[in-house]
Amino acid sequence: MPTPARNTLAIVGAGPIGLEAALAALDRGLDAHVFERGEVGAHPRAWGHVRMFTPWRMNVGPTSRAHLEKAGWKSPDPEVCPTGEELADGYLEPLARLSELEGRIHAHAQVVHLARRGLLKGDSIGRRDHPFRLLVRDAGGRESYLHAFSAIDASGVYGQPNWAGDGGIPARQELYLAPQMSYHVDDVVGLRRSRHAGKRTLVVGGGASSATSVASLAKLAAEVSGTQVIWVTRGGREALLPENAGDPLSERRALYARARALASGADPAVEHIGEVRIEGFDFNSATHRYRVTLMRDEETRVVEVDQVLVNTGFGPDNSLYRELQVHECYASRGPMKLAAALLGASAGDCLTTPAFGADVLTNPEPDFFILGHKSYGRNPNFLLETGYKQVAEVVARLTGELATL
Ligand SMILES: Cc1cc2nc3c(=O)[nH]c(=O)nc-3n(C[C@H](O)[C@H](O)[C@H](O)COP(=O)(O)OP(=O)(O)OC[C@H]3O[C@@H](n4cnc5c(N)ncnc54)[C@H](O)[C@@H]3O)c2cc1C
Questions:
Q1: Which of 68, 112, 199, 361: disulfide with 306, CB 3.0–4.6 Å?
Q2: 89 and 12 in one domain?
Q3: Are residue 29 and residue 85 in the same domain, yes or no?
């Protein structure tokens, strides 16, 4: 089996960070290829109807911008916040069409595993001399191996939603019923309207995604009578999406204020139940309704609903690099050094969190980096702006090391 050139770089995921990394790496003489399990921008497309909190000026990577502008791309209004779909159509697609990336983005190519050729996880000596070995699966299920001397995992977290049940594990019957419930931010006023119009929906979760779902369902309730929402959260109402009067992100400020008002009874179509845990789900196949058991201390309450939206956040898929030496944070499941730095800097808000340098992004596994949304693990505070800074740091580190070989 031929050994790849030393400057080869494999990137997992063609999201905003994977594409920025590819262009930055090519600019510095690395031979980069991107492997994408779906299509370019698959995750922002999946939440395509959701308007971002950050405006265009914060969402475009500096290297991507330079390449796009050279190709005649006109930047959208920098102060406007795009939807996920607009980000994919107006930015990621044009990026993927750049001649520089021709033949370098491999769509419908899922990286199933990532290891070192000839080494197991426990082998400690000379890992850098063994290329990474990627098991890649195409859309037809055919698998092949590819090799590269450096690797970036920018595969995001949106494909790995958390469970609804208490303690983060599935509630009773949740595993069985999961395929018919939803674990994403559904387009309840558009594509998924008929599932919710005139129906009663349970929304689980206390973050931005659940706020988006509840606010959209309330909008639907104003249009279609009989539409109802039960919103359950682990914490109490007072702790829900606290007000930050100085928040410069007006989309976020408005959504959180609306969500707090809805939780406080501003709309009779929305009932908020705080400080509860989900104990179990039952589905009645005669009525097509769910009976959901909620627990507060030892008290039980059962609610009946037509649909369930679980918006309890996302986490990283670490099965990909199981055979690599990655030191994972026991709390966030992100890479340890970055998780510790984030904890240390825990001002709380994504806007004030620094990007940190390449040292913080390293793993015990040499030349392997987890970047972008996945680098934050379960911490929801990731911003694209931060990811673009990570890319610059890491590509400089990789090329610097290459120069010393
Ligand atoms: C609803 C929502 C709203 C958000 N709003 C904002 C915002 O306003 N501002 C902001 O800065 N950030 C926002 N974010 C956070 C973050 O910026 C986005 O999640 C962003 O898409 C992350 O980019 P990424 O490149 O790290 O990963 P992703 O965009 O998630 O891309 C990862 C890619 O990897 C692919 N992939 C996954 N597994 C594999 C595999 N095994 N093999 C090959 N390919 C794989 C996926 O198909 C996907 O295309 C938001 C996130 C969500 C969910």
A1: 199
A2: yes
A3: yes
Residue 234 lies in a domain: yes
Of the pLDDT bands very low, low, confident and very high (cuts 50, 70, 90), residue 221 is very high
- Measured in Å, residue 47 CA sits from the centre of ligand 1 at 10
Whether 113 and 232 map to the same domain: the answer is no
Q: Which residues line ligand 1 (CB under 6 A)?
A: 12-18, 35-38, 42-44, 47, 50, 52-54, 110-111, 154-156, 158-159, 185, 209, 320, 372-373, 382-384, 387
Give the structural domain span for 197.
Answer: 166-310
Q: Which of 310, 331, 363 is the last residue in one of the domains? A: 310
Do 56 and 12 belong together in one domain? Answer: yes
Residue 173, exposed/middle/buried by CB under 10 A (0-12, 13-18, 19+)? middle
The CB density around residue 29, as the number of other CB atoms within 10 Å, is 11
DSSP class of residue 37 equals S
Q: What pLDDT does 355 receive?
A: 76
Token pair, residue 336, equals 């340890």
Protein residue with its CA nearest to atom 19 in ligand 1: 373
176/77 same-domain check: no
Q: Are residues 95 and 12 in the same domain?
A: yes
Does position 246 have pLDDT exceeding 90, yes or no?
A: no
pLDDT in tens, 251-298: 999 999 999 999 999 999 999 999 999 999 999 999 999 999 999 998
Count of structural domains within the chain: 2
pLDDT for the residue 348: 62
- Which tens digits make up the pLDDT trace of 27-78? 999 999 999 999 999 999 999 999 999 999 999 999 999 999 999 999 999 9
**Environment class of 226 (CB within 10 Å of its CB; exposed 0-12, middle 13-18, buried 19+):** exposed
**Is the pLDDT assigned to residue 347 strictly greater than 60?**
no
> Which stretches does DSSP call E strand in 180-324?
200-204, 228-232, 270-273, 277-284, 289-296, 299-305, 307-310
Concatenate the DSSP letters of all residues of 209-237 into one string. HHHHHHHHHHHHHHHSTT-EEEEE-SS-G
CA 342 from centre of chain: 17
Looking at the structure, do residues 252 and 274 belong to the same domain, yes or no?
yes
**346 CA to centre of own chain:** 20
If you ran DSSP here, which 8-state letter would residue 163 be given?
Answer: P
Mutating to test ligand 1, I would choose from 19, 33, 43 the residue with most ligand atoms within 8 A of its C-beta, which is 43
Going by alpha carbons, the residue nearest to atom 12 of ligand 1 is 383
Q: What is the pLDDT of residue 210?
A: 97
CATH number assigned to the domain comprising residue 229? 3.50.50.60
